[in-house]
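Thread amino acids onto this structure.
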């Protein structure tokens, strides 16, 4: 009933990412509001809805991508690219809009300095599909398939002792970057 909805307590939660217009203006985003059931009042739009609204994906193509996800498993965006319905750039733009996080391009990840990449263990990066790609002072930029994962951001911050700035990237871009060997510092050897 409407009365029950009006009395549902709300909890303010800060989003992890700035939306691109707010980030460009240097402003913090408005805080998101969640009800106690965990359902977002202004839920994140669905990837398929974003892509169809932009006119880069038809509803039939969306159904085909969803069907591939159900049959094979995996991420919808990855399947839409594999099936040739959209390209990586279109996917990344839609993911940035969906997550309200800045986008990290494949080239940025592939050319990340080894000393930055070495800040996180390889196994951790592979398990969580995350790539550290830039460091400025005490700030570390990471790219993730799910940049709004608060536990992931907290764990990266704990492992590195740095303030983490999450960015979104495609699964293909992260996987390709993780395939590039990273020169890791040698541990002290016994004399």
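Threaded sequence (191 positions):
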């Amino acid at each position: 009933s409407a009365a029950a909805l009006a009395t549902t307590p709300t909890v303010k939660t800060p989003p992890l990412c700035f939306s691109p217009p707010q980030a460009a203006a240097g402003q913090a985003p408005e805080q998101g509001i969640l009800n106690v059931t965990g359902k977002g009042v202004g839920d994140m739009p669905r990837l398929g809805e974003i892509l169809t609204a932009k006119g880069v994906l038809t509803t039939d193509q969306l159904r085909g991508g969803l069907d591939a996800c159900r049959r094979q498993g995996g991420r919808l965006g990855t399947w839409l690219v594999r099936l040739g319905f959209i390209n990586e750039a279109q996917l990344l733009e839609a993911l940035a809009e969906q997550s309200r996080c800045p986008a990290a391009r494949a080239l940025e990840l592939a050319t990340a300095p080894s000393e930055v990449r070495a800040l996180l263990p390889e196994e951790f990066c592979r398990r969580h599909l995350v790539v550290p790609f830039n460091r400025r002072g005490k700030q570390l930029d990471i790219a993730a398939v799910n940049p709004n994962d608060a536990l992931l951001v907290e764990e990266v911050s704990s492992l590195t002792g740095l303030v983490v700035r999450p960015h979104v990237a495609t699964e293909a871009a992260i996987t390709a970057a993780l395939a590039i060997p990273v020169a890791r510092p040698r541990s002290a050897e016994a004399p």
